């Protein structure tokens, strides 16, 4: 590894793209062992080590399976009769959390987002709210109109969007802007009381009859009785993790209680079989 | 990200002209404490930064890494965690992992 290559690796992750770091871990020519290269998901290879052209080509061919499976792994192959081993290390791009509205709830949201390894963007149209002093941990603090921002932002299945703007109308405007685009984010959460939202939701539903709204969560958060900004952030973050990990969001103890009612005792069944 | 931090550290070490070795898990089989890609920097005095899982397995790798620093030659070490299964310090894992060790 050298500084130039490290910078490329870091920049790619920062631009929220997956990348692989390849290391030659075995080769008959010991000078080549330890050589490194970066492999982008589009199959482009970058290296500033002196690798034979044929070996580069074979690396791309043999590491393609890791790009498809999205995980690290080792592979052994032949390149010009030389048996080569390569370790491909997967650096997944971080999930992107966009918090629109830099008010009270946004602060613990941004902090928790960073704690959980998200790439965090805070966006607000008011400079006195969208600034570095209020959000030192965020990866990006954007001061721009919501509509402009959501018109141009990159949206992938790694994007998690939270609408917490000061006025419900900005949330709705942002939401319609997002619905107008064809890309589907993993999660769109919109804050608001049940009563206020049901009316808006009905209107939007009529405007977008073909939309499934599967990824729209409103009101936001899990039902834990959250009131303070920090509590709300926990509730919303728990919901985001639930969506990301595709889990139920219910208490783990619930399952055990269900089994207990059926007379389940750990290991009980097996022991009876063994002794009889 | 921890991995990135350790790569950055190894660059700093190289820049500063210090000697050390970087150990990376490149293959695992069965149950191992850490997965492929986990890294650990070993300094000549035996101090480490990062972990590849701790216990006897890690100690074996540290020993090998000190050799790598001395000889300035890459090496691979297979750590067999199935052996120590019944020993007190055998850990609770029962897998095998290959570790690539490179001089910095």
UniProtKB/TrEMBL annotation, chain A:
Stored InterPro entries: MoCofactor_Util/Proc (IPR052698), XdhC_Rossmann_dom (IPR027051)
Every XdhC Rossmann domain range: 97-240
One protein family per Pfam: XdhC_C
Protein name: Xanthine dehydrogenase accessory factor
TrEMBL record, chain B:
One protein family per Pfam: XdhC_CoxI
Domain of life: Bacteria
Domain XdhC- CoxI stretches: 16-79
The name this protein goes by in its record: Xanthine dehydrogenase accessory factor
